Amino acid sequence: MSRATGTAQGSGGEGGTASVSPSYRRYILTLLLVVSTLNFLDRQIINILVEPIKQDLQLADWQLGMLTGLSFALFYSVLGLPIARLADRSNRPVIIGISLLAWSAFTALCGLASSFVQLLLARIGVGCGEAGGGPPSHSLIADFTTPQNRASALAYFSLGSPIGTLLGLGLGAIVADAFGWRMAFFVAAVPGILLAAVLMATVKEPRDLRSLKAGPKAGIREAWIELRSKRTFWWICLAGAATSVATYGQGAFWSSFFLRVHGEEIAALAPTGTGPLVLVGLSLGLVKGLSGVAGVITGGLITDRLARNDLRSYCSVPAIALMLASPAFVLVMLAPDFTTAAGLLILPVFLSSLIFGPSFAAVQTLVSPGTRATAAAILLFILTLTGLGLGPLLIGIFSDLFAASLGSAEGLRWALLLTAPANLVAGIGFWLARRTIVQELELD
């Protein structure tokens, strides 16, 4: 292994980047991007459906927080670790394919739920399936790329987040408005069931599994020993947890916020023959999807370019972006009308999306090839359990508390505003990670 000295070097990892053609590498990255897109589509589609689900099943905001956050996050986080260790020594395309099939099937079951408990169990199933998607994909991409283009490659994969959000919010709203919220879940489930077979049949594991199995049996404990000395990794985890509380918490209630706070204006602006949900879904989908895509691509390209001269850019880019995102979010919450708020939302979404490529690439380059999936799983464990697990639930609880004196609309607004400082904390965490990243990167 070569230790970083301040500029990027090295030629790839254990995956043997030179052993596959550029066209096959592009095919793999594109296929994994589609998997990532379906991951976030199936995860996020419930966010545009919370108001019709709330009315149909007579739920409180804290229950919506459970459905959009904790029910998914707890099992996603816990199962991600053993699945990641399996992925570090087994066939990753098969693991990803089986996981995709599982979470797609449970997404369909969400549409059959007739009570809070049934929907909760179905969402738990979605979380269990998606636990096998992200970490093995991160590890596979790292093996097919060199350190010099890893941030861009992982940023490309991370485009699944804004694209999946766009499709989930936009198409989910259209389908729900025309056919009901249950049909939206059914439609979202179909592509993943079909894609799983394609992925397992066409993507080959690049590692020699026989040599891996014959080697020392490293487990989570051994991976933990390697990771615990990486101070940069833990600063990134802390920063990621803070920004995830804001991102996931706000994302779960954006549609509710707009419908409650700007409901009359939205009803007047809604296209003829459709309900307010369609306008909100399309607006949020386009704003979060397009500005998110722009942010992810920009973050990956800028970081790869800057890191050629200064490896601290893996942390500098996210730090600056998140410090600017916090006040931008406050402007959205205090905007006087829907049109202004939706327009201003472009800025915090763009800034928050800049962090995907650099932070994921930093983590994949901080550890040895045999620990990459586990490192990604630990990062996603912390991000998901704190952000998706606690963010929506806490906002739901405070929204219910504030509603008693402020009303449903203002109660939700002030509950959301409580998350504003989270990105400032995250920015500080990434800035502190700059101090040690050069010494700790592993660039083989």
UniProtKB/TrEMBL annotation:
<keyword id="KW-0812">Transmembrane</keyword>
<dbReference type="InterPro" id="IPR011701">
    <property type="entry name" value="MFS"/>
</dbReference>
<feature type="transmembrane region" description="Helical">
    <location>
        <begin position="233"/>
        <end position="257"/>
    </location>
</feature>
<dbReference type="Pfam" id="PF07690">
    <property type="entry name" value="MFS_1"/>
</dbReference>
<feature type="transmembrane region" description="Helical">
    <location>
        <begin position="314"/>
        <end position="335"/>
    </location>
</feature>
<keyword id="KW-1133">Transmembrane helix</keyword>
<feature type="transmembrane region" description="Helical">
    <location>
        <begin position="154"/>
        <end position="175"/>
    </location>
</feature>
<keyword id="KW-0472">Membrane</keyword>
<dbReference type="GO" id="GO:0016020">
    <property type="term" value="C:membrane"/>
</dbReference>
<dbReference type="InterPro" id="IPR020846">
    <property type="entry name" value="MFS_dom"/>
</dbReference>
<dbReference type="InterPro" id="IPR036259">
    <property type="entry name" value="MFS_trans_sf"/>
</dbReference>
<feature type="transmembrane region" description="Helical">
    <location>
        <begin position="277"/>
        <end position="302"/>
    </location>
</feature>
<feature type="transmembrane region" description="Helical">
    <location>
        <begin position="341"/>
        <end position="363"/>
    </location>
</feature>
<dbReference type="GO" id="GO:0022857">
    <property type="term" value="F:transmembrane transporter activity"/>
</dbReference>
<dbReference type="InterPro" id="IPR044770">
    <property type="entry name" value="MFS_spinster-like"/>
</dbReference>
<keyword id="KW-0813">Transport</keyword>
<feature type="transmembrane region" description="Helical">
    <location>
        <begin position="411"/>
        <end position="433"/>
    </location>
</feature>
<feature type="transmembrane region" description="Helical">
    <location>
        <begin position="62"/>
        <end position="83"/>
    </location>
</feature>
<feature type="transmembrane region" description="Helical">
    <location>
        <begin position="181"/>
        <end position="203"/>
    </location>
</feature>
<feature type="domain" description="Major facilitator superfamily (MFS) profile">
    <location>
        <begin position="28"/>
        <end position="438"/>
    </location>
</feature>
<feature type="transmembrane region" description="Helical">
    <location>
        <begin position="375"/>
        <end position="399"/>
    </location>
</feature>
<feature type="transmembrane region" description="Helical">
    <location>
        <begin position="95"/>
        <end position="117"/>
    </location>
</feature>
<protein>
    <submittedName>
        <fullName>Major facilitator family transporter</fullName>
    </submittedName>
</protein>
